[in-house]
């Protein structure tokens, strides 16, 4: 069977979306291929899929042959038609300077005098910010093959040795992925690297060379170079950067074959500038990132995984210096401008003072917000405004707590479902929700029930082919039609409520019956758990206000639920009848439009009149220019990305003081 579609995945099937696509494809028994411009590749190979260079808005065909071919095609087509596929919110972390929810004061460029001084180098500005500190040279020795031809009787043993090395690298990466200390963004990168390590394109190429008589190390080096060259030849900057990932994975396999460990970054001094010709994303993701003041590399560019990791952790970085990086091997101190791509070796006193001043100014700005981490924002009348975090996985807990989140205003449960090739069990869900509740206790944690539709494929749920899945069988509509799935989640939430202040929110509500039917299911689940002797507790039930229908029946809805949470992202697009992912009508997706603001005010008025909490979990909740308006409407909870929390608290406190 086959079916064609237009790819809507944002920026196409690069590393993370390709990894997720392959994971989805591997969940089906059928052989699956993706075809573009007449070229077909296995949909179960990340490397081959990325090399197909599928771009956004291109036409492709999905072919499947096997017992579950229909299900495979439906799921994979749904994935390709989802603009956010593979780009989980937590994997797209940006540095504060890039965060749309913050108003970060621009830091001026270094003075021309400073950049014109001796010992200045210019590379690619890969991660914004300024840094100055001791140089930490990281130039591990190159690995060379043994350069000997194997005897026929040695080949089988050498293949076994190679396969064992690949398994060892995969095990290391699996161990890293299991650690809570790995951020969600870094987790996506490590997962992509692990896919490369397991891909038949690399392992098959290497094994073919070993069968031809090459020793394993020489075979890996050659295979990695061949595949990396394929990536370099593609007319796509992002895919070009994947060549570095292939080399990095090849190096890890070779080190295992040699019985060696790579040079560690564990001893990098506080605030040091990491200098390297090339550093694998695998190594950087495991490094003590909080101690690194900046990164300078000969290889890499703005789309490389090194750059993505640096940006996600707020580390200034200049990459792509080429051979110039060798001039830094003996440097004692380095000044780094990640905005303009400038690197200065052993800066003189004037340059040192210039950079130190800029670093200090940026630090003061951050510190000025950091003091609000533990603040409980109150208005002049004593009302507390809860500033909570929007998160989608347990990996984001640390960042939310570090920012001072007063609980979670939106926990997106769909990622828990999308991460697995099968529907998550009740026990798995209960453990996740319980961990979340414990981490933020006694603050509330609002868990949104499964919010998926045909645009978000999940293994185990077959969605119909819909002309407009955003207005179709999704959210609470799908859940109520699939009580086998919904009850499993509700039972898990009831069990988790024993461990903290769990609240549950229903998405895409447009009719009161959806609330009453859900309450009946909750009572049914509670009765079952009681009969089974399983500990559980009740939870507040609320709705996400994101449809015009919910706004218009808000007074009646308020009598049936414990709280409202306004989802401004979808509410805006539905009120304005403008797809928020369509750039042609992007200007219509403005939360400040009178129609949208009127809907928010109507919702708040209904909630306040009924005496229930009214909150907001859309992006607008973190906008300093709108917070005062929302609070005056009666909102007492605002939930946003962790990066926006401290500025939001500052804004609320300024309101209380009359500033």
From TrEMBL:
Active site feature: 305 (tele-phosphohistidine intermediate), 617 (proton donor)
InterPro entries from the UniProt entry: HPr-like, HPr-like_sf, PEP-util_enz_mobile_dom, PEP-utilizing_PTS_enzyme, PEP_util_C, PEP_util_CS, Phosphohistidine_dom_sf, PTS_EI
Binding of Mg(2+), residues: 546, 570
Domain HPr, residue spans: 1-90
SUPFAM superfamilies registered for this protein in UniProt: Enzyme I of the PEP:sugar phosphotransferase system HPr-binding (sub)domain, HPr-like, Phosphoenolpyruvate/pyruvate domain, Phosphohistidine domain
EC number(s) on file: 2.7.3.9
Catalytic activity, as annotated: L-histidyl-[protein] + phosphoenolpyruvate = N(pros)-phospho-L-histidyl-[protein] + pyruvate
Main EC class the enzyme belongs to: transferase
Subcellular location: Cytoplasm
Keyword Cytoplasm: yes
Main location: cytoplasm
GO biological process entries: phosphoenolpyruvate-dependent sugar phosphotransferase system
Keywords: Cytoplasm, Kinase, Magnesium, Metal-binding, Phosphotransferase system, Pyruvate, Sugar transport, Transferase, Transport
GO molecular function: kinase activity; metal ion binding; phosphoenolpyruvate-protein phosphotransferase activity
Cofactor: Mg(2+)
Function: General (non sugar-specific) component of the phosphoenolpyruvate-dependent sugar phosphotransferase system (sugar PTS). This major carbohydrate active-transport system catalyzes the phosphorylation of incoming sugar substrates concomitantly with their translocation across the cell membrane. Enzyme I transfers the phosphoryl group from phosphoenolpyruvate (PEP) to the phosphoryl carrier protein (HPr).
Family stated for the protein in its record: Belongs to the PEP-utilizing enzyme family.
Name the record gives this protein: Phosphoenolpyruvate-protein phosphotransferase
Organism for this UniProt entry: Rhizobium loti (Mesorhizobium loti)
């Amino acid at each position: 069977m086959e079916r064609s579609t237009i790819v809507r995945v944002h920026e196409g099937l690069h590393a993370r979306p390709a990894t997720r696509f392959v994971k989805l494809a591997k969940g089906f028994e059928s052989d699956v291929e993706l075809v573009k411009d007449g070229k077909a590749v296995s949909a179960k190979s990340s490397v081959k899929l990325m090399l197909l260079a599928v771009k956004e808005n291109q036409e492709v065909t999905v072919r499947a042959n096997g017992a579950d071919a229909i299900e495979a095609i439906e799921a994979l087509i749904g994935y390709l038609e989802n603009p956010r596929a593979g780009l989980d919110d937590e994997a797209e972390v940006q540095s504060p300077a890039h965060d749309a929810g913050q108003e970060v004061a621009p830091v001026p460029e270094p003075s021309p005098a400073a950049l014109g001084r001796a010992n200045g180098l210019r590379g690619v500005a890969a991660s914004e910010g300024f840094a100055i500190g001791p140089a930490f040279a990281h130039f591990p020795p190159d690995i060379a093959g043994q350069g000997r031809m194997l005897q026929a009787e040695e080949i089988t043993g050498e293949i076994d040795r190679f396969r064992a090395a690949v398994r060892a690298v995969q095990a290391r990466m699996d161990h890293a992925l299991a650690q809570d200390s790995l951020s969600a963004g870094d987790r996506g990168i490590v997962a992509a690297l692990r896919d490369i390590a397991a891909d038949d394109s690399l392992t098959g190429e290497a094994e073919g060379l070993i069968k031809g008589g090459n020793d394993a190390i020489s075979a890996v080096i050659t295979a990695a170079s061949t595949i990396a060259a394929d990536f370099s030849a593609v007319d796509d900057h992002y895919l070009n950067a994947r060549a570095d990932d292939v080399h990095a994975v090849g190096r890890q396999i070779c080190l295992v074959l040699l019985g060696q460990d790579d040079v560690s970054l564990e001893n990098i001094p506080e605030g040091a500038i990491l200098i390297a010709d090339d550093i694998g994303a695998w190594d950087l993701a495991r490094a003590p990132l909080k101690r690194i003041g900046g990164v300078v590399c000969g290889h890499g560019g703005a789309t490389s995984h090194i750059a993505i990791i640096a940006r996600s952790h707020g580390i200034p970085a200049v990459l792509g210096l080429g051979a110039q990086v060798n001039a830094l091997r003996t440097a004692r101190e380095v000044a780094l401008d990640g905005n303009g791509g400038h690197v200065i070796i052993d800066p003189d006193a004037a340059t040192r003072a210039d950079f130190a001043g800029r670093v200090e100014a940026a630090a003061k700005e951050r510190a000025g917000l950091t003091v609000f981490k533990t603040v409980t924002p109150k208005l002049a009348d004593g009302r507390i405004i809860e500033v909570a975090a929007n998160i989608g996985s347990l990996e984001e807990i640390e960042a939310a707590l570090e920012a001072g989140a007063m609980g979670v205003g939106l926990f997106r449960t769909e990622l828990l479902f999308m991460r697995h090739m099968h529907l998550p069990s009740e026990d798995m869900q209960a453990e996740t929700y319980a961990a979340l509740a414990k981490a933020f206790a006694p603050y509330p944690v609002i868990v949104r029930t499964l919010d998926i539709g045909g645009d978000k494929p999940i293994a185990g749920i077959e969605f119909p082919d819909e002309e407009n899945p955003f207005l179709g069988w999704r959210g609470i509509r799908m859940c109520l039609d699939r009580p086998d799935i919904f009850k499993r989640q509700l039972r898990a939430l009831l069990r988790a409520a024993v461990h903290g202040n769990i609240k549950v929110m229903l998405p895409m509500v447009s009719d009161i019956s959806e609330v009453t039917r859900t309450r009946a299911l909750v009572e049914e689940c509670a009765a079952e758990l009681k009969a089974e002797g399983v500990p559980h507790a009740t939870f507040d039930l609320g709705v996400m206000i994101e449809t015009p229908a919910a706004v218009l029946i808000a007074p009646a809805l308020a009598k049936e639920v414990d709280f409202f949470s306004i989802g401004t992202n979808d509410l805006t697009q539905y009120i304005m009848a403008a797809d928020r992912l369509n750039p042609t009508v992007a200007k219509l997706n403005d939360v400040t439009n009178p129609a949208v603001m009127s809907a928010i005010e109507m919702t708040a008025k209904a909630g306040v009149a009924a005496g229930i909490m009214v909150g907001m979990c859309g992006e607008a909740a973190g906008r300093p220019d709108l917070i005062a308006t929302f609070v005056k409407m009666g909102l007492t909870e605002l939930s946003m990305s962790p990066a926006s929390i401290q500025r939001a608290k500052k804004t609320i406190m300024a309101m209380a003081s009359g500033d």
